[in-house]
Amino acid sequence: MSWESFGVTVAAFFTLALYSFLYKDNPFYKLAEHIFAGISAGYYVGLVWHSIIKQQLWTPLFGEKQYLLIIPGIFGILMFTRFINRISWLSRLSLAFVVGSTAGITLIQQLHGMVLPQVRSTFLNVATFSGIVMVVGVISTLIYFYFSKEHKGTLGFIAQIGIWFIMISFGASFGYTVMARVSLLIGRAQFLLTNWLHIIK
Q1: What local confidence, expressed as pLDDT, does residue 125 receive?
Q2: Which side of the chain, N or C, has fewer Cβ within a 10 Å radius?
């Protein structure tokens, strides 16, 4: 057996082990689950070490003499004080900096990358039927999430329309998710029947 055939056999075993959960929880599923979780954790640790710690901290700090990187390096080390009860409060400094900077950066990115383009696109083709449906859907959905006034009368009617748009959106998203999962299932079935069992040529 070649290494390629061995790799295909191992992949087929883990595929069947994971799908065996459809019958019931069993040792084969747990084995595959633990191996997958362990490999994923090890891979991301290696990825963080090589792509972040070495490339963005260690090499620029000691190789290129960018001494200002000592500050984020200290903040990173302080994150590990969570494991020492006496000084665990120091990790809050790092967490506060990360949360604050991330919130500020993400807010601007979401505003310019999603909110403003979506508002512009909503009113771009308002003269067409699809444009009118888009505007009605956006406004009625926003009114549904307006809780400062009780949904009665005209406001309640518009909010009810918003519920319909929300349900249609959720249904489309769910259908897309199911379709994606079915595509993955078909891909694994093709792998088993073609690459492993050679039933399909």
Answers
A1: 84
A2: C
